[in-house]
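Annotators were shown the component list below and the corresponding predicted structure, then asked to write short factual statements about the assembly.
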Amino acid sequence: MRNKTLFIIPYALWIILFVVAPLVLIFYQSFFDISGHLTLSNYANYLTSSVYLKMTLNSVWYAFLITLVTLVISYPTAYVLNHLPNKQFWLLLVILPTWINLLLKTYAFIGLFSRTGSINQFLRFVGFGSHQLLFTDASFMFVAAYIEIPFMVLPIFNSLAEISPSLINASKDLGANQWQTFTKVVLPLSMPGVKAGIQAVFIPSLSLFMITRLIGGNRVITLGTAIEEHFLTTQNWGMGSTIGVILIIAMFIVMFITGEAKQKGGRTR
Amino acid sequence: MKKLLTVVISILALCAALAMGNAALNQHHGQGSGRLLTIYNWGDYIDPALINKFEKQTGYKVDYETFDSNESMLTKIRQGGTNYDLVVPSEYTVQRMKREHLLAPLDHRRLTNLHYIDPQFLNRSFDRGNRYSVPYFWGTLGIIYNDQKVSAGDVQHWSQLWNPRLRNNLMLIDSARDVFAMTLIAQGHSVNTTDYQTLKKAQDHLKTLTPNVKAIVADEMKMYMEQDEAAVGVTYSGDAREMMSVNHHLHYVVPSEGSNIWFDNMVIPRTAKNKEAAYAFINFMLEPQNAAQNARYVGYATPNRAAKKLLPKKVTSNQAFYPPARTMKHLQTYRDLPLKTLGVYNDLFLEFKMFAK
Amino acid sequence: MKKRHLTWSGLYLAVVFVILYAPIVYLVVFSFSAGTTMENYHGFSLRHYADLMSDTRMITIVFNTIIIALLASLVATIIGTLGALAIKDTRGKVKNSLLSLNNVLMVSPDVIIGASFLIFFTMLGVRLGFISVLLSHIAFCIPIVVLMVLPKINELSPTLVDAAYDLGATRWQAFSQVVLPAITPGIWAGYFMALTYSLDDFAVTFFVTGNGFSTLSVEIYSRARQGINLEINALSALMFLVSLLLVLGYYIISKHGGRHHRVVAVKEGDVQ
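Structure shown to annotators:
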């Protein structure tokens, strides 16, 4: 059995060094203030300052909206894809953009949305005049949703694909119309995929930070932006870690709510 | 098994090839020899022709490396992996480096060309007697505006930025000290205020600016102002100059009630290996001819009085970049504040940004 | 009825695809523009590709990014495969907790991973730069490899291994000649997924890089902030080509190993 122990050593080391230790450290760091004194003041600051609480609520609200927009676009997409011949090929086309570097796509949107950019040129051309597109909530959410669509389409597509056609036929045989079949059979059966999709989109949306700056003009501050600011700009790691701990808690809450989805429709199946 | 091993080896070989490619690409750094001068400066902050001239004139070989923020430069100097002979930090960083004993004191007998520097730029509070630093360029924080969107009279003072007419048309630089500096000056306080109540009041005032703020950005501001994305921006004189060269509707103003003035300075780190060459380079750059050539290339204001005389009148009479004495009187430099106070600045600024939503 | 339904859904899908590909097409088209902005197209030119080819800094960074991706994926694949083999032999509670720990980095937001690694490296005194970035990439690539390899190991019937022993194989022979070939498709899939994860990462690298070391994402971030530069478009076009080739290669490999859509599904956690 010597072999087995040897196998597990590097993997166990990885778990200890890069999974457990960093999480412990972020928790540990959250008890230190900027001058390196052990304190609870970060948490006190977080809980009593209306600014941080408001920022958290705001962040959750934006993440909710982004998830909603993504879901509204993705569900019909997955549904239609599932009825196409060669559906695996079309699915691959949906996923292909995720292989393009995230920054490049965001960069493209800066060009598209700017005052002299292509969308405004088009709007002027059709007579709508030019509009402020960059630095608006709408553009921020659009870009965020854009990036996350494939991650929502996938799990929904997978769970739709798993629904046995005989169930749908049975429903039709029993006299249900298309709408009834959809709401009574297809939708409930695809819920695991929807939950997995929400999980895959909501948590990253809470922690967005690059898009808030490039597209949102730093006017939308999410939990992720706050962490990045505290770690890399203000060097206040204690406060950054505290917000990190809050984000981890939020993550567990989301996973708990969408919990059973992981077993069925999700990624680790 | 054999196949997998082959794959592993070919991946490693590919990595090695790429690494060698990198080494070849970056090979021009001459190694060893006492004739090497390693300079660490901001990106695009010297006329490359001057480096060639220096090499030819003195026989030294120059290795020129660049950084993009005082902080990253400082980290590298502290870490001490490379021995730089000459570095160009901003004034508050000079102060910090002095405190951390990272700098070598300058021997003024060897600075034969220091007398060309305008006395008003010597003996500043961040380095009394210029014991460690020689000014390289200087500049200000100010207002850039687009004359198609606002008239000059509307943007002469910091307080005018609060004008409701600028609604959603103002870009701020993403820097706690600079945004607080403009607010503190608008309220008649020092840019080095450490009193919490005063800062808090400044933040309250800043929050009322929120409706006007379109975005809080860094380098992107150049691109956005050039593209008419906003009417007014708060930025540094050097960046302003770049924007103005692209978009002729842009103009730069230093409010007469005061603003921040900053200096980038040549210093010699304690770990320097070739101080001889560093002194030679400082003197070379202080030569009026060379300083003027450099100022023409870089576009920042030169502290070199003799060099300024060699620049076109059009440049030196531009009050936006060489403000008149009455404005100069009101310009303030940043002091290196205690960590705790900087923390307060940053926290209040972050709060403002959150509020800005 | 049926027909109309199809056209509407077809139209919807077309709109979605247009949106999904618009930014990419936009970048690629302007990479061939003779102008310098993304406002107006100025006629065909390859000058931005020429600029890119003579930009030593950018080429160095592209090389660095590829080195990091290749090396990190390689190490992650080795450790992850060993880990998957080890997990296979555990039971019950131990197995569950190992799997949960494995998934922590899959579901954690990148900001948390980056921030916690930064604390970790700073405490250990690891110099930020190539090494810290490489270690981080290895770290966040391992769980994907495990998830790719594990199903293949589970499919492996124990009788096959026993048969090998019965035929007089040593443990090493059984491993290298029976187990390894059987799970090779999973290992390949793991390596490819790790590669895409590493190539695409921005947030983690952004936190743990330093001392002038930069990867493509981080460099694009700082360049995008300095303004539109069509050299970046040229780079995007090239990268799109590489991605296409990678996806194609990956598609062929996973076709070979069957059931590819499950494999693809794992990329989910990797936004931001």
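Statements collected:
1. Chain C is about 80% helix and 0% strand.
2. Chain C has a mean pLDDT of 82.
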